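Hey, I'm writing a tutorial for new members on how sequence and structure tokens pair up, and I'd like a real worked example in the thread rather than a made-up one. If someone can provide the structure for the chain below, I'll link this post from the tutorial.
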Amino acid sequence: MSTSTEEISTGGHVHSHPEAPEQGMLGPRPSAKRGIWSWLTTIDHKRIGIMYGLAALFFLVLGGLEALLIRLQLAVPNNALLVGDMFNQMFTMHGTTMIFLAVMPLIAAFFNFVVPLQIGARDVAFPRLNAFSLWVFIAGAVLINVSWFAGGAPNGAWVGYPPITGPQYNPGHNSDFWVMGLMLLGVSSVAASLNFFTTIVNMRAPGLSLMRMPVFVWMTIVTNILILLAFPPITIALAQLMMDRMFGANFFNVSKGGMPIMWQHWFWVFGHPEVYILILPGMGIVSEILPTFSRKPLFGYPLIVFSGAFIGFMGFAVWSHHMFTTGMGVIAVLAFSVTTSIIAVPTGVKIFNWIGTMWGGNLRMTTPMLYALSFISMFTVGGFSGIMHSAAAADMQQHDTYFIVAHFHYVLIGGAISALFGGIAYWFPKITGRLMDEKLGKWAFWIFFVGFNMTFFPMHILGLNGMPRRIYTYHADMGWNFWNHFCTAGAFVLAVGFLLFFINMFNSLKHGEIAGDDPWDGRTLEWSISSPPPEYNFAVIPQVTHLDDFWHKKQSGKASASWDGKLIHMPLPSYYPLICGVGMFVFGMGMIFLKDNMMVFLPIAVGGILLLTFAIFGWALEGPGGEMIDPTKESGAYN
């Protein structure tokens, strides 16, 4: 369909351009820029980031409701709200939802929206692969939650230890949904990580050397390296468990020579780097917020960067501190005790650098700043309790008690969620063009902060008093009554803090104060463009000359380069990534029920594969088509 002069529609404006790209071998592709179809077919990294964020917030609410039900059951002794296997399903889905369906996609939302803007790129390296990652994530998330309506949700805890999750003790489909859903989520995460790694390495603006990159970009690349290295072990373990459950293999069947302990090694080789996959982006966000609201450059930038990289490297050397009670032997216990102690050093370096950044600065206690300070303080508490577990003798006593529950919630809620909420408040003006309400934001923060500490700090006491985790009831004479009442009350205070944050966020979408392009006097490149950003991000790719380059340009009076008159090529939307996600969902459903009725469910599984194959071929044959955009006539709004 190439002609010497081709008319191309660009958001309602028609332009003539002699070098317009071809539309591809399959003919015209979807080009809607408004309405639901434009969102279903988009390959714009910003829209994909917004959809990741909305999905993550939905599952955060769902996981929070599951947590409230758990706390209601444990509020009083001998309660019967959630009994036996229903309690097992609830805490399994709570853990799985919060880690894989809430925190990880919320991190992915920031990766998608912020990273290309911070490196001066117009999009990610592989826009369609980016959309594929989103829709496969949605497929995996829906698949796991469909289990509630198909015989029962996963019930083997988020760690999924065999033989509890094996066919002998778990003959239903509960764990099948968990296994298949996590495999789809793994495909999504690995595809996204390859994309972001390639984007950061190859698509940085001219002059943006590695040691000029924002710390958030650095933590993004370290996190994605961790994903690429950590997900293969858990994928192998899930495949082995799936073969045990669906095809009668015996990888974890002791009576047939299997080794359940092998699952623990596979899982924790993934599981401990997973902790840093969840926390390193938060460290990057805090490293963006603190300098902005301290009016100072980040103190010790190289140390922050190298500490993050060292944390990622050491994350693979500490997995067996989760297994001190399994009888590994003195040498192994000693080795992992030492490495667990060592990994605290780079974390301490970061904390001192953050304090150094604030020291002597002109602090502005905005909502993002409060959440950043919450991250530092709460993550420090979680870090101290974590270091206690490097001592095997202490770990032996605290293992599988509520002390561990307190520890990892201080890391993942006090740490990761605090940072992510700070990031939402910080980049909300860039995403929406409006500011969140500061008064309501501060009320939400303080209620969140008080409720969090009310809920989880007493769990240290419960754990030291011997309360095991994963129990659904207890006797009144155990001495745990008061603190369980207190924790449950705190959980509802915490829920109010979350609710106020969400109310503030969604109310500000329409009624928030107009932010302008640079409301915080930002340091990095995303603040140099309009809010919300246009589809193409930068009319002219910026030339970077310094760390904190936007600050430098503003202080030196050097304005950003103006548009040079060249039309900007942007790829067209595609529905094939969405079809890939649907195909993988259908295949997963067919495989889960295959052993029940092969005649019915084998065609469903094959149909999913055929749908996926069709989408992949269609994707491959789309060609490099696109449209030419005139920056003077494009809007940055999302419709």
